[in-house]
Amino acid sequence: MNQLRLPQQSNIPSTTIPLPSSKSESNRVLIIDALTSGENRIENLAEARDTQTMIRLLKKDPPIYDVLDAGTTMRFLTAYAAITNKQKVMTGTPRMCERPIGILVEALQQLGAEIHYLGVEGYPPLAVNGFSEQKTDLITIRGDVSSQYISAILMIAPLLPQGLKLELTGKVGSRTYIEMTLQLMKQFGISYTWNGNLISIPPQPYRPTIYSVESDWSGASYWYSLLACAESGELFLNGLKEESLQGDSKIVDIMAHLGVASEFQKDGIKLTKIPVKGMQEFDFTHCPDLAQTVAVTCAIIGQKMEFSGLESLRIKETDRIAALQAELAKFNAHLLEGGDGRFTLIPSVNIPDEVTISTYDDHRMAMAYMPLMTKTNVIIEDPEVVNKSYPSFWKHVEMLTLIKNQ
Ligand SMILES: O=C(O)C1=C[C@@H](OP(=O)(O)O)[C@@H](O)[C@H](O)C1
Ligand SMILES: C=C(OP(=O)(O)O)C(=O)O
Q1: pLDDT tens for each residue of 4-42
Q2: Is position 361 annotated as part of the catalytic site?
Q3: Is 406's pLDDT higher than 50?
Q4: Closest C-alpha to 72, from 130, 155, 14, 9
Q5: Among the atoms of ligand 1, which is closest to the Cα of residue 315?
Q6: Which of the listed residues 101, 316, 321 should we mutate to test ligand 2's pocket, taking the one with most ligand atoms within 8 A of CB?
Q7: What is the mean pLDDT of residues 183-196?
Q8: Is it the case that residue 316 has pLDDT exceeding 60?
Q9: Set 50, 137, 216, 289: catalytic member
Q10: pLDDT tens for each residue of 200-259
Q11: How far apart are CA 222 and CA 78, in angstroms?
């Protein structure tokens, strides 16, 4: 297996990181663009494999949409194929075929789409066989498994002849991603209301728009973590805005407690080290992709913390709770399950001279553990796993001269 060796380096030279664009924003505007009659101008699309896969499938329109390991690409294209009356097989990596999609399929079937399972019920691969006529304008959808099902339905809703009233039930997780979807739709001319649990979208066309995708806050989180863990340093992250559509911009508040100050400037954000104020607990329900970053940061800087809202981590690129637990234990840190949906992060008091991190086909496992190099020599297994969201990640690490003598 391919490995990357990161020699220990505790001081970070002042560096500007040219962050990649957000794959979440990119994949939404690509679907909206495909549903819009007329010309949009979309700038700064993500380099992420998830986005490049979406671009390729929309452009080539093959009979089989193989999304690889991209969750949003799978969920958004399934709804897109249904509403545009296409006949498609939806498939992906073996892990993608273990990630549930039944809630979305059922909602689309209720609306009038013909979809059936080609393997295990509730999971890809699927056959989408088009859309006959709209059967209802009111559907109820659970919000506690993945917000991506809701975003997928919302984006096709304006094109339904009767529009849609979508009632969300249960605990709604990743709400910030639903808000991102609606905010983007609004920028492309869509009006909607969201009262309590009911989102209503009348039938209407998307309006052609010029849109520039913001840098990726989830990707930014690893640089915050690096600085939090380092002895000294200063970083500038390009292309981030104070008013962001991305819920992972919450990293600003979290890191203000864990030792990193953010100063918004014209072209991005300047990060500097400040004393650690400490943080007792954090609920990751609406920013699940930050959980690995924050867990590893706390483990390294000696911050004990209670974590909640980790439910969705079990059905992402890997079971992220199990993966986090196994890799934290390699440097004597622990994520202990409390049984009530709560976890306690016990930081390390003894980091070995060298730690080898397994990455579980999960880009965030590789990126989240990079900052461990501020304390010890780290070996990252299968480093190319970062390509899913941040292909230039290791090139950017190299800019800090952290990977020398390769
Ligand atoms: O809509 C999106 O762009 C995403 C939503 C989240 O997934 P869930 O809604 O499944 O939590 C997040 O984890 C994922 O990386 C991207
Ligand atoms: C969970 C993620 O992506 P997706 O669900 O789109 O595969 C992620 O990028 O962390």
Answers
A1: 999 999 999 999 999 999 999 999 999 999 999 779 999
A2: no
A3: no
A4: 155
A5: 10
A6: 316
A7: 98
A8: yes
A9: 289
A10: 999 999 999 999 999 999 999 999 999 999 999 999 999 999 999 999 999 999 999 999
A11: 31
What tokens were used for 8? 């220990």
| CA-closest residue to ligand 2 atom 6 | 71
φ, ψ of residue 46 in degrees (nearest 5): -70, 150
23-212 matches 3-20+215-399 in CATH topology: yes
Four-way CATH pick for 3-20+215-399: 3.40.50.2300, 3.40.980.10, 3.65.10.10, 2.10.109.10:
3.65.10.10
Structure confidence by residue, pLDDT tens digits, 259-293 = 999 999 999 999 999 999 999 999 999 999 999 99
What CATH number does domain 23-212 carry, 3.30.565.10, 3.40.50.720, 3.65.10.10, 3.20.20.140? 3.65.10.10
Look at ligand 2, atom 5, and give the residue with the nearest C-alpha. Answer: 71
Indicate which ligand has the atom closest to the C-alpha of 54: 2
Q: Which of 221, 215, 186, 156 is nearest to 23 (CA)?
A: 215
DSSP 339-400: SSS-EEEE--S---SEEEEP-TT-HHHHHHHGGGGGTSEEEEESGGGGGGT-TTHHHHHHHT
Give distance in angstroms: CA of 72 to centre of ligand 2. 7
Return the residue whose CA atom lies nearest to atom 1 of ligand 2.
316
Give start and end residues of each alpha helix (H) in 160-275.
175-187, 217-229, 251-258
Which residue in the block uniquely carries the two structure tokens 């980790």?
Answer: 310
Domain boundaries, the chain: 3-20+215-399, 23-212
Q: Ligand 1 mean position to 382 CA, how many Å?
A: 23
Q: How many CB atoms lie within 10 A of CB 39?
A: 9
Q: CA 110, CA 179: separation in Å to the nearest integer?
A: 24
CA–centroid distance, residue 145 to ligand 1 (Å): 10
SS3 assignment, position 29: helix
Q: Ligand 1 within 6 A of 284 CB?
A: no
Please enumerate in sequence order all residues whose Cβ is within 8 A of that of 243, keeping only pairs 6 or more positions apart, or say none: none
How far apart, in whole angstroms, are the C-alpha atoms of residue 259 and residue 218?
A: 18
Pairing verdict, β 281-283 and 210-212: unpaired
